[in-house]
């Protein structure tokens, strides 16, 4: 009887220590995402709401995983960092041979009606391994050797992902490394060298790795008005949808661009445009405000963190979410090339939803232990 009572009290204490402000910010994002996916499903010829049902199942599974991680000790991730990384690389290699091709990239394992994108798992593996690496070598010991070693960690999965090809996920992994390296004390004099290496890598990828459709996307980004009915069609329609939203939008399910199917990939790449058209400036403010609150709460935990691994783990999670928000919103506005990256917590996609809520579970686990350590 005592053990049961103690367990209940312990769970209640952990619930009180959770970051409820961050929780509600994520809840707002999930609600907006499900509402937009429901709206897009209204425009389909069939009324079975397949995407809503599949996303709901993924959301339920993701919530169970997030809850389990929340009540676990996040430090266990450091013990499995190498296993996570190796498994991620093996899954990426395997998908090149056994995966399905979706939207021009061979990056999904298909199991009947369920698909799994290993690049999402790789993001988690890279974040945990880099957090562990930088936590031991940050600031005082950071030099050329550490720069090259940490870069090698991210280079292997990036090269494999580029062979899918999936330029968006590869760029996010590189961005995670760059942000963590900066916080770890990377000398600023190496920045010019990295920019030069990036230019060389881009030239190599252009002639060797990029698929024709990826080259067309970059060309469209540089010259958006040259082919408005061809390669520039998606971005042009997204910009029209965003501009048509006004203050409070046309109403959920009444957006002309999404309901009349002018806007391709409206439930994934261009879901921001759907929200902007149907919920207007109010919906966009709510969306971006929720992300702002999320990042503010994570930054608070970074300041309160008591060890380097926790700090870099939080920074890595914030980096991957920030980069995907930046790129997704940017490509909807036409200021970034279309890369196929979804909007975290909002876009349709079970794999990304599961791993983003896994990250939320890690953050809440950190919050619980940080608050209890302070008080």
Report on the structure:
By secondary structure, the chain is mainly alpha-helical. The protein has one domain (2-374). 72% of the residues lie in helices and 3% in strands. The chain has helices at residues 2-17, 20-42, 50-70, 76-79, 81-98, 118-137, 144-162, 167-183, 190-208, 212-222, 233-244, 256-259, 271-304, 308-333, 350-374, and strands spanning 100-102, 105-111, 114-116. The chain has a three-stranded antiparallel sheet, with helices on one face. A hairpin with a 2-residue loop joins strand 2 (105-111) and strand 3. Helix 2 runs antiparallel to helix 13 (271-304). The longest helix has 34 residues, at 271-304. The model has no long low-confidence stretch (mean pLDDT 84).
Helix and strand element order: HHHHHEEEHHHHHHHHHH
The helix-and-strand class reads mainly alpha
Q: In angstroms, what is the radius of gyration?
A: 21 Å
Reading side by side through the largest sheet, how are the strands ordered?
Answer: 1-2-3
Number of helices: 15
What percent strand? Answer: under 5%
Helix and strand arrangement:
Layout: H1 2-17, H2 20-42, H3 50-70, H4 76-79, H5 81-98, E1 100-102, E2 105-111, E3 114-116, H6 118-137, H7 144-162, H8 167-183, H9 190-208, H10 212-222, H11 233-244, H12 256-259, H13 271-304, H14 308-333, H15 350-374
Antiparallel strand pairs: 1-2, 2-3
In short:
The chain has 15 helices and 3 strands. It is mostly helical. The longest helix has 34 residues, at 271-304.
Main attributes of the structure:
three-stranded antiparallel beta sheet, globular, 15 helices, mainly alpha, 375 residues
């Amino acid at each position: 009887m005592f053990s049961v009572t103690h367990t209940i009290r312990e769970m209640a204490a952990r619930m009180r220590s959770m970051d409820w402000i961050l929780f509600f910010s994520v809840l707002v994002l999930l609600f907006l995402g499900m509402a937009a996916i429901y709206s897009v499903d209204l425009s389909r010829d069939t009324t079975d709401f397949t995407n809503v049902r599949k996303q709901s199942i993924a959301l339920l599974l993701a919530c169970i995983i997030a809850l389990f991680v929340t009540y676990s000790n996040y430090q266990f991730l450091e013990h499995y960092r190498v296993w996570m990384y190796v498994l991620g690389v093996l899954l990426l290699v395997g998908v090149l041979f056994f995966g399905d091709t979706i939207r021009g990239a061979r990056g999904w394992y298909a199991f009947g009606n369920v698909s799994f994108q290993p690049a999402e798992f790789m993001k988690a593996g890279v974040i945990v391994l880099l957090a562990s690496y930088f936590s031991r070598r940050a600031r005082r010991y950071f030099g050329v050797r550490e720069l090259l070693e940490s870069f090698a960690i991210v280079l292997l999965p990036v090269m494999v992902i580029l062979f899918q090809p999936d330029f968006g996920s590869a760029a996010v992994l590189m961005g995670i490394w760059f942000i963590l390296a900066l916080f770890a004390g990377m000398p600023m004099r190496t920045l010019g060298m990295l920019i030069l290496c990036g230019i060389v890598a881009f030239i190599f990828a252009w002639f060797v790795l990029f698929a024709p459709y990826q080259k067309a996307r970059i060309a469209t980004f540089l010259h958006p008005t040259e082919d408005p009915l061809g390669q520039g069609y998606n971005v042009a329609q997204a910009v029209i949808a965003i501009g048509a939203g006004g203050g409070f939008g046309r109403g959920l399910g009444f957006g002309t661009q999404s309901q009349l199917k002018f806007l391709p990939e409206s439930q994934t790449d261009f879901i921001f445009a759907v929200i902007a058209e149907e919920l207007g400036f109010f919906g966009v403010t709510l969306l971006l405000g929720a992300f702002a609150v999320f990042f503010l709460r994570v930054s608070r935990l970074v300041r309160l963190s008591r060890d380097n691994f926790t700090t870099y783990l939080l920074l890595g999670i914030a980096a991957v979410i920030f980069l995907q928000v930046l790129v997704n919103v940017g490509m909807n506005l036409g200021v970034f090339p279309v890369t196929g990256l979804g909007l975290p917590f909002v876009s349709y996609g079970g794999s990304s939803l599961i791993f983003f809520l896994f990250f939320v579970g890690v953050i809440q686990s950190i919050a619980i232990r940080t608050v209890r350590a302070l008080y």
